[in-house]
Write a sequence for this structure.
């Protein structure tokens, strides 16, 4: 039978005994037994070695298991710390400083380590700033800064690696830059740093620092520090998000305040015309609140039925719409003119769901533009009138000097003639023509504001009542005259004669505009700021177009047929009002009548009591006063001398100022009145009287045919007596008697 293979241990002993032949002879038996015994011994050794190996492996496994259980317990401990810090974030997430102190304390206690710190990068990523660090003894610090230019390897490592576990901080190239200035002085031998990241962006570093013998950072410790870094990242980002939200809220509040402070009406509407946003100006305009108006339909649509068609181009076509003018009624019932810009609000997806509008109230601007237009028109009017005034002023003095003897001599001639006698009709026509010429010159001076005014504080209402009888005679039967006079009006400083002329001209003009039955209404009222007295004369006549109204005050402009007017009536009114410092406006519509509004400055003075005009003395009545007449026009001088002599006065006549001075010198103490022209050769009348006053104490009466001869401002000084040329015999004798008897 084939032999079985020997046991490898026995085969090994047999090879030692008999060699590779394997043949066993008798002499080999003792050796064979010894070989068998040796094989057994070697087997025993292998078994013992195996048994010892099994025993050793079991011990190592036990040790490993104990280490594993320890690491698991350590991991649970560190995880518990991480969980506690996560809860801290939830509980104290609004206070980062307190959270950082809690985390550095937790890291120091859990690992444990001598120092733990939290560093945050600046906005440029170039400087790490210590937010909080806990050192030995539990002391906390902050504020230290590390710049990337000083520690480039460390900054590069933190930018590239999740964790820098420097078991040998001084020898590790990533942290060796801190050796001399930081690690050695503090005895730090190990550093475990984890980056605080938001996505791929490095926000900062959590650093655990070991002091003492070398230390190898375990995987659990590295994971723990990384988890702490993740929690800090969450807290920092949450805080930054809150700060951003607060900033957005602040900006929103700030923007809201700006919008509410804007005087413009700012609002947004959806396609159904609901207000989605309004500012305070809109709420004030509609007399409500922002809260009440938000979400409701535009009142112009809901109440007034105004179509929102102007919104459609901006909403449907996505283009800006400019509305230059639109009228709206505010909560006080006032019609305001708004200028509006409408702009679509385009969403991120390109849709247009809302419309933003900004409306500017241009009512005052329109009013100012109208006033400017009126002012420009007034300026043009003034320039046109000024040209007429230059002409009138140039001829007034000479023309009135010519008219004076014509009028007076015609009057004197008529005094001795009865109706139907020879020359009576001719002299009457001469006097009538002279008076017409006088009135024409007066009108030219009035419209050019160059006539002399005798300004006195008067009550306009009383003046209208005094003139009403004359006005009633001027008004035709088919026209009713109504007076609506406000009692107790402030006084105005005016010339009574000129006020009367304004009333007559306007009432006559109003009556001419009424073809059938109608009325003329005269109203007065006062305005406080600034103090003014207002006169309105309104008629129910035919009215006029805007084009006609624009020319109504132009000299020689008239809408009447030839022969019914000179075109100077309203121009004269305009000149008188302007010379009194007032304003005049006209409002008229075709078929709706016309209203003239005059505003005159009010004064604090009490109105001067109206007295009866002086009565002219009859020719031939004897007087014994001596009057010095100074007049360079021989015709006027001769006339005045004859009239005064006929009154019984002693008359001294001088052609020049020099002659007047000589007469005063030679008639010391006998002259009772000086009657002098203003325009004289070599010296004007005012200067002459000042010279004569050295030797005289008597009053003076100035004569002139032009206001500017007396005062450049066109008004008499208080106490100045004036006789306007051309004057009648009655005017002359009454003025002389009035002054002498005063």
């Amino acid at each position: 039978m084939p032999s079985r293979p020997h046991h490898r241990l026995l085969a090994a002993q047999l090879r030692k005994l008999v060699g590779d032949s394997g043949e066993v002879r008798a002499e080999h038996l003792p050796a064979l037994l010894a070989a068998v015994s040796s094989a057994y011994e070697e087997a025993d050794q292998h078994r013992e070695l195996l048994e010892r190996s099994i025993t050793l492996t079991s011990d190592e496994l036990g040790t490993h298991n104990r280490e594993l259980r320890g690491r698991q317990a350590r991991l649970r401990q560190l995880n518990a710390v991480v969980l506690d810090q996560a809860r801290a974030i939830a509980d104290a997430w609004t206070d980062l400083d307190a959270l950082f102190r809690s985390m550095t304390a937790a890291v120091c206690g859990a690992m444990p380590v001598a120092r733990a710190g939290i560093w945050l990068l600046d906005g440029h990523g170039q400087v790490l700033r210590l937010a909080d660090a806990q050192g030995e003894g539990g002391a906390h610090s902050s504020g230290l800064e590390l710049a990337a230019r000083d520690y480039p390897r460390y900054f590069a490592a933190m930018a590239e690696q999740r964790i820098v576990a420097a078991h040998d901080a001084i020898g590790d190239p990533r942290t060796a830059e801190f050796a001399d200035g930081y690690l050695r002085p503090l005895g730090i031998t190990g550093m475990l740093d984890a980056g605080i990241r938001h996505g791929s962006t490095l926000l900062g570093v959590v650093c655990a620092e070991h002091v003492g013998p070398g230390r190898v950072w375990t995987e659990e410790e590295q994971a723990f520090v990384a988890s702490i870094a993740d929690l800090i990242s969450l807290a920092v980002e949450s805080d930054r998000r809150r700060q951003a939200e607060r900033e957005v809220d602040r900006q929103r509040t700030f923007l809201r305040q700006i919008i509410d402070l804007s005087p413009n009406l700012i609002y947004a509407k959806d396609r159904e015309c609901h207000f989605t946003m309004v500012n305070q100006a809109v709420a004030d305009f509609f007399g409500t609140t922002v809260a009440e108006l938000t979400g409701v339909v535009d009142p112009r649509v809901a109440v007034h039925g105004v179509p929102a068609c102007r919104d459609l181009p901006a909403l449907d076509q996505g283009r800006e719409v400019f509305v230059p003018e639109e009228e709206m009624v505010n909560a006080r019932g006032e019609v305001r003119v708004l200028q509006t810009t409408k702009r679509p609000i385009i969403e991120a997806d390109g849709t247009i769901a809302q419309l933003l509008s900004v409306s500017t109230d241009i009512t005052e601007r329109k009013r100012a533009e109208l006033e400017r237009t009126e002012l420009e028109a007034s300026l043009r009017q003034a320039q046109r009138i000024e040209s007429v005034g230059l002409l009138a002023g140039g001829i007034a003095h000479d023309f009135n000097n010519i008219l004076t003897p014509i009028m007076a001599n015609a009057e004197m001639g008529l005094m001795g003639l009865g109706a139907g006698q020879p020359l009576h009709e001719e002299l009457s026509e001469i006097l009538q023509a002279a008076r017409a010429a006088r009135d024409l010159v007066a009108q030219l001076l009035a419209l050019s504001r160059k006539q002399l005014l005798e300004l006195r504080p008067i009550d306009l209402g009383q003046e209208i009542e005094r003139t009403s009888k004359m006005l009633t005679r001027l008004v035709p039967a088919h026209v009713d005259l109504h007076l609506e006079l406000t009692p107790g009006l402030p006084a105005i400083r005016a010339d009574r004669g000129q006020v009367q002329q304004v009333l007559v001209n306007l009432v006559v003009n109003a009556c001419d505009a009424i073809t059938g039955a109608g009325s003329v209404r005269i109203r007065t009222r006062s305005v406080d700021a600034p103090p003014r007295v207002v006169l309105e004369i309104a008629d129910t006549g035919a009215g006029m177009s805007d084009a006609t109204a624009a020319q109504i005050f132009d000299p020689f402009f008239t809408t009447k047929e030839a022969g019914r007017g000179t075109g100077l009536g309203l121009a004269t009114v305009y000149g008188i009002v302007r010379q009194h410092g007032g304003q005049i406006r006209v409002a008229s519509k075709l078929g709706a009548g016309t209203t003239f509004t005059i505003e005159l400055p009010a004064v604090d003075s009490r109105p001067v009591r109206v007295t009866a005009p002086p009565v002219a003395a009859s020719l031939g009545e004897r007087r014994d006063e001596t009057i010095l007449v100074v007049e360079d026009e021989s015709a006027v001088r001769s006339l005045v001398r004859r009239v005064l002599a006929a009154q019984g006065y002693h008359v001294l006549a001088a052609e020049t100022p020099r002659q007047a001075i000589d007469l005063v010198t030679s008639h010391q103490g006998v002259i009772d009145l000086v009657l002098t022209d203003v325009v004289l050769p070599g010296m004007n009348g005012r200067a002459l009287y000042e010279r004569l006053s050295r030797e005289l104490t008597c009053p003076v009466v100035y004569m002139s045919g032009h206001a500017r001869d007396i005062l450049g401002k066109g008004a008499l000084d208080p106490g100045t007596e004036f006789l306007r040329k051309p004057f009648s015999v009655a005017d002359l004798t009454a003025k002389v008697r009035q002054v002498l008897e005063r």
Remarks:
- The radius of gyration is 59 Å.
